[in-house]
Amino acid sequence: MRTMTVSLDHARLLLGLRGQQLGLVRQAIVDTDTGTVEQLLLETRWQQVGIPWQRVAFDAESDSFQLQPARRRNQPS
What does pTM read for this prediction? Predict the structure, then answer.
């Protein structure tokens, strides 16, 4: 898999499971073969962390990303 880092049109908040502000997302990592987003790059005051796209939902009303609970291994998709 080949990837490329792309910049979003503007920074968006990433909210945690309880709605707390975790940091800003300014970039995403995209699979160049399929065009799918693989990860969002979360910027905090201390570090930059890759968040898997499957763990995030976009809320158009608030123009922000929301972290989603991890699925259990035996849970159907």
Answer: 0.86
